[in-house]
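Dear colleagues,

As part of the handover before I leave the project, I'm documenting each prediction I ran so the next person doesn't have to rerun anything. This entry is a single chain, and its sequence is reproduced below.
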Amino acid sequence: MSKFHRWLALGATLLLAMAVLAPACAKPAPTPTPKATPTAAATPTPVPVKPMTVRVSSYGGPTYAPRQYQERWMKAIEERSGGRLKFEFFPSESLVKLTDAWDAIGKGVVEAGSMGLYAPEKQGILEAIALMPFNWKYDKFLDHYKDPGGFYDWVEPMWEKRGNLKLIMWSAQGGFEFAGRTEKNLLKTKEDFKGQLVRGLPALKRPLELLGASPVEVATADVYTALQRSTIDVSMHSLDAIESNKFYEVGPYITVANLTSSYLMFVMNLDFYKSLPPELRAIVDQTTLDTDQWYKGVINDLVDSTRKRLEANPKVRIYVVSDAERARWKEAMKPYYDELAKKFGDDWQAFQKVWATVQ
């Protein structure tokens, strides 16, 4: 074998050996790092919802039916909202007097409360019909005033436009009756009104004059003292209010005539109502409907039981005016109705249509 061929064979042998030994000498391939298993995001700790505080001003003592409505309504809303709505309750005009409630609630001094109508220049026909003589029977009114297309639908926009108020409930709890200081202050006939100083709301000034009385304006909170000091002879209230405010102690001679259906509104500041989240507004609305049903179910018993308690009091005397005498009083009101028709024009005509549904 030539030298060339020997070198050629040796080179081939070396190449073969390298091919065999190379895999054994090579560094092992790196083991791939397994991908991390994604972990679930941590559940954030819920931030407690700060309760919204609703200040409610009220009128009347614990037995007063509209106050019982408010207390039941507040308790139900607190429970149904899971405490998101909390109430501060100010009873018996301790924060806002009825005479100031229109402005106080409408301007947000308190968020809700009892409402009397004392400002005809602001309230227009609302004030007139609330205490219009012989306006409606309270039980039929409560049964029908929220019927679709009826009284409530007609009157609600006026509350919103005139007072920035959301009407929750227009209460009725029997008639406005007369609590007099002495026996001579019993009003058995139309002629008995002559010379009597009768406390009534502004809306009743003209009707009382037509009956022959001398009307006097006195805030409800001052009535007890006014009767006690003979500043007035007679004061007009529902039997409920006469009892809860203890007016019978200084006005024990009570004339039951049902001259007009007693009233008290429960309203909420409209801006506050609209600011509530939809789910809380829904709770307020549903609770209102439920409490309305409760109120209608108990008001007759409340009125009857109040009258029986007063009748059982040996210091109280109750005189019931006959239907024939009431007819004489109603006839005396004709000039007043004519004045309302002239004053309120189209509003009065619109009222006539819904009036029939609650009479």
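The mean pLDDT is 88. The two ends are 140 Å apart (CA to CA).

All the best with the project,
I.
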